[in-house]
Amino acid sequence: MIRLLLVGLPLAFFAVFYFYPMAAIVGISLSPAMLETLAESNTWQVVGFTFWQAALSMILTLLVGLPGAYLVARYSFRGKGLLRALTAVPFVMPTLVVAAGFNALIGERGWLNLGLTAAGLPTIRLTGTLAAILLAHVFYNTTIVIRLVGDYWSHLDPRLTQAARTLGAGPLRTFWAVTVPLLRPALLAAALLVFIFDFTSFGVILVLGGPRFATLEVEIYRQTFAFFNLPAAAALSLLQLACTFALTVIYTRLSAQVTTPANLRSTDFTRRPLISFRQKAMAAIIIAGLFGLLLSPLTALAVRSVSRLEAARGQRGEIQRGFTLDYYSALFENERGQAFFITPVNALGNSVQYAIATVLLSLAFGIPTAWVLAHSPSPGGRGVGVRETLLESILLLPLGTSAVTLGLGFLVAFSRPPFNLRASPLLIPLAHTLIAFPFVVRTLLPTWRNIRPQWRSAAATLGASPAEVWRRIDLPLVGRAAVVAAAFAFAISLGEFGATVLISRPEFPTASIAIYSFIGKPGALNFGRALAMSTILMIATASSILLIERLRIKGVAEF
Amino acid sequence: MFHKLKPLTLSLTLLLAACASPTPSGPRTLTVMTHDSFAITESVLKEFETVNNVTVQVLKSGDAGALLNTALLNKESPLADVMYGVDNTLLSRALDNNLFEPYDSPALAAIPAELKLDTENRALPVNYGDVCLNYDKAYFAEKGLTPPTNVSELTKPEYKSLLVTEDPATSSTGLAFMLGTWAAFGDDGFRQFWADLRANDVKVAPDWETAYYTEFSGSSGKGPRPIVVSYASSPPAEVIFASTPLDDAPTASVTGAKSCFRQIEFVGILKGTKNRDLAEAWVDFMLDKTFQEDMPLNMFVYPALPSATLPEAFVKYSGTVESPIILDPRTIAEKRDALIKEWTEIVVK
After folding, report:
1. Are the beta carbons of A175 and A104 closer than 8 angstroms?
2. N or C: lower Cβ tally within 10 Å for chain A?
3. Is A173 within the bounds of a domain?
4. Which of A45, A521, A529, A534 best probes binding to B when mutated, by most B CB atoms within 10 angstroms?
């Protein structure tokens, strides 16, 4: 009964804010033309490429993210919180801004190529290639691996790997034979989320890949806005949904097979300081790698936001050097006395308010849902039943849904009774919650599923009430994952643009809307303002994540 | 106890207020739906609100394409009273779907006939902008190269690898430019021109922002290519939005015969409005001199009203666009999908 109640609320939320708008938009688009789209050979080429680039991106992201996850899981060192917070910044940055950052570094006239030219070497051309797409996907999603895998890893008993080493296994063999199997629940969860993000990728493909590459999401956008072919767009959306649904079902079955309760340990027990030279050197290499990949394009933008950008005429290519805060002060200047003028303070304020609302809503729905899924009574006491598999897969659907289609669905469904919310500022955090909620569930589940049931029964046998069992066993373990989930929900809301731009109100713009409104106009001052606003968003993101991760739920710190 | 309840009450009020229908007392509300480039000086808007005793609610729905989609999807129960921002590349779709009610505004008398593309006055022209090539003046001066004076010159060998344009399937700027080349060269000429441009290494960007700030060398983004498809109003914008005062524009437009495509933006009263009188007042207001003169520096477009005074920078740095291409919406509606597909085959595949 309690289970029904706990899962009922999130399901009702899903029914109203996901299935209802999706049904509304697909209902409008229903026509035989949908079948024609599916019969076209081009459609299947696009499906093929979508899978191919997502698989490559996912593998690369795991490879890049794992050393970072290892470092934050196994060692304690100064500045670790900051490192974790900084790796989350790429996740919220608008694609257009990231493209400008990459361009400053590796574009045809970027620093790298200027250096290569100066050294007499041939220049590299990255934009418009598959490599650029993969690089950008790694840039965006590495933080998912570091967080999800790193958090889980930090609770694994290090004595298992130590035993393997004592028994004579080399470090690589130990990693494959001991660590990887233990990490599988978190690895699978991270791989799935990264895959779905890459699978539904849109901005990166358009801006960095160029017109020769198309994923399903790009094709949906083109069909919707270039050809107004809603039936084709709906058919492709459903196809994309079917693919992600199939993936999540496979994933849930896979993760059910590998879910074996593990001895999760306190991080005080699993973490060591960096002592030997080798450890320090390894940490330095990993940190330098992460900085180079994730932060150098962003740093390039931050540097440009305080440098004069105008080329001195006559000396072509020479940038007039010098430090300036003009672009920051210009953010506050409404030189034309425009109505709906956006100051950085109120844009950021709106973004943060939406993000807080998203965190609260997605935790309120996500924690009970994860609890129900983690405590599913199934024959044999382990594994996951069919009903749970279905529920889990359904709850992941918003992540695999086309933002264009869902955005249009929102516009149709919530512009008329019974849910006339078009003018309400609430619509934005509701839309963001839809995307953050699956993330929250996915972050909580691996840990929750792997708490040894014996611990609970032992506590109960010793006379603890169910509430006390929850407080002493579940909360300390899950609380940490909940903080990770909250940080994710916050970042998702801060960075979301696709749905926001369709439903936002000019009185309540977000930071990313402000950035787009500047970069959409010609002139050095506008470009400078976009960079300044992006830098402010970066700093705000890093500091709020730092703050959230400092939050310690009572009792969690000790674990 | 009560203060603890407050945040909840606030949210509930928000929710209820959002669900409830507007009350008839106090100033009435006029809802204007538009694209995200819409901007107006606050005092100008306030004046309209005071004179008509009305509160103007502005709904922005993404770019022009998203705006039209939104309006069409909600045709049965319109989201707003007036819609501003549909342009001539999309106009037929709005008209064929009976989105607007006709309105013979008295202000139309002062608007040139060539801009009035709808004879029934369901869509009334407010402003126009010319999609033209922009070039980086310093690049051409330094290389001692003559900049192109006409679009057809782009296929010459000396302009190899210099041009970046936008994909017509994802950018309205790119679409306008492509339509212009078709109007200028005809079916066969269009194919030949773009095949030649491809051979001349044209670069395609997905949107104006990427083309202008990532690829174009004349902007502060410092891209590699010195010619971009942008607007006749971009060079004056470079001067007005310079970070250090400039006495000359760093870029210029190519304004030769048949080189620029005229994009005209329209306003229309949405069918089914319950505030027809206010909607009419808003349309008159948009065509009136105050708004027409306020518009150029806010949205970087040209006023439809010829007697509206242009800002000095517009006169000085825009150049005069010779015989711009104006296509009628019917032709555009018939050709656009096929042309986009053909263009993609020639240039991208």
Report:
1. no
2. N
3. yes
4. A521
